[in-house]
Amino acid sequence: MSAVVRAFPTVRRRHVEIPAGLAEVPPLLARILxxxxxxxxxxxxxxxxxxxxxxxxGGLEQAVALLLQARREHWRVCVVGDYDADGATATxxxxxxLQQLGFVRPDYLVPDRFEYGYGLSxxxxxxxxxxxxxxxxxxxxxxxxxxxxxxxxxxxxxxVLITDHHLPGDTLPEADAILNPRLxxxxxxxxxxxxxxxxxxxxxxxxxxxxxxxxxVDLLDLVALGTVADVVVLDGANRILVEQGLRRLRAxxxxxxxxxxxxxxxxxxxxxxxxxFAAGPRxxxxxxLSDMSHGIECxxxxxxxxxxxxxxxxxxxxxxxxGIEQGMREAAxxxxxxxxxxxPAALCLHGxxxxxxxxxxxxxxxxxxxxxxxIAFAPARQQGLLKGSGRSIPGLHLRDVLDAVATGxxxxxxxxxGHAMAAGLTxxxxxLAEFTEAFQATVAAQADEDVFLDVIDTDGELGExxxxxxxxxxxxxxxPWGQGFPPPRFDGVFEVLNHRVVGxxxxxxxxxxxxxxxxxxxxxxxxxxxxxxxxxxxxxGIYRLEVNxxxxxxxxxxxxxxxxxx
Length: 566
Prior knowledge:
This protein is α/β, with parallel strands linked by helices. The protein is built from 16 helices and 17 strands. The longest helix is centred in the middle third of the chain and has 34 residues, at 304-337.
């Protein structure tokens, strides 16, 4: 394997007893679900009536009262969103949903990430007043930390409703109403909602208060897209929201914008992965390189023709993003290859010509290759500053690490924020070496020894009789797999009947199944083709069983995540 490709990991197979509640489920699916903590047949039901009721969501009563007043008194409303896919879908959901519920169509505003940064700042309040003269600002996917921005809005006579899902700080903004599942004192069964999920709950509660029926369910495809793209935990509530959105797309009932994003990616609206790996990146590309309003206009499009035009534009931006990313990745991995000695506990990478909108993706790619937390830095527009975006590994809370660095080194960080697995920060260029040393030392101090062990959990081996199209369809379509509810993953050793490189970087395989006298196709994307032997007889791999559709034919296929010649 190449020095910059993650080596074949240690396999840890999940072993579970199938609970009685799953006795009626096909055995293969039952053991997979049991390994993910499912125990009863009721959890198989992904219908909307199993969503936690809005009345359990603390803070909704005040939010709905504010919105009812806004509707009754005909306030001008401006939705302030975020420049990622969750923020874009949440903005579209709030704009469309309020319009469906009798509001004059709200305006919306998404900060330019390069000029204004993240969230409701005093500058964004001024911009909203200049453009739209709103009476009410509604934040989606942001606002819980916007103390100064809310104060500026209130001082100007504006009302503010915050809807967010990020972790709150010790001090909350003095908004008219705040809705955040992480603020519910008694706990809320849907605590892992994405920003778009919080927006949807607001609209459900408002629809109920207005005694209207069935209108906001039309927005579930947008909710599904934002939920998957934001990589929140797919617990029971989020699985329901995603599955219901997917069902609408499969039935041709989704919004023109989401359907268009899937079409330009060559995907059928079938599984959650289509949202996460096809529609989501094209939507995110607008916020990374351009202006997220391009993405939001696609989601708000009312006709297929309008949506197609926007989706094509987003696809072009995404291709540009991939080209920028590829050059940055090659430079980053060359820098990694120059490292000597043991791999450090964490890495900080920097390029003077890197794009600040793409460093998050770059950090993710390097993290995947090395199984280490990574922060990638690019020059900010403000002279002398760097913008960093980091990605972490399971067992290491990245925001907590940055908090420890900031506490131990006052003045080193200008600002930072984020989650366990992803975070961002701003740093003066002259402090990069000092920060790198402090970051690596803090990670080393906080990390348990086994955090850096490359161990992959699998659902064991698949018997040859289980490698069928019926099982591939069952596993692909029965549940929306994702963060915290990972797709079924298996391991095994296979005889290679034929192999070839396709698309310059991908290894296509024909694998023998001698016990059943058959063969199955396999694919390993981005293989280290230069390091592969000319003749391959046997391989060991970790893979997913999926459906491959080609020229109208549907067949099972093994999609390898890791592969080595044996």
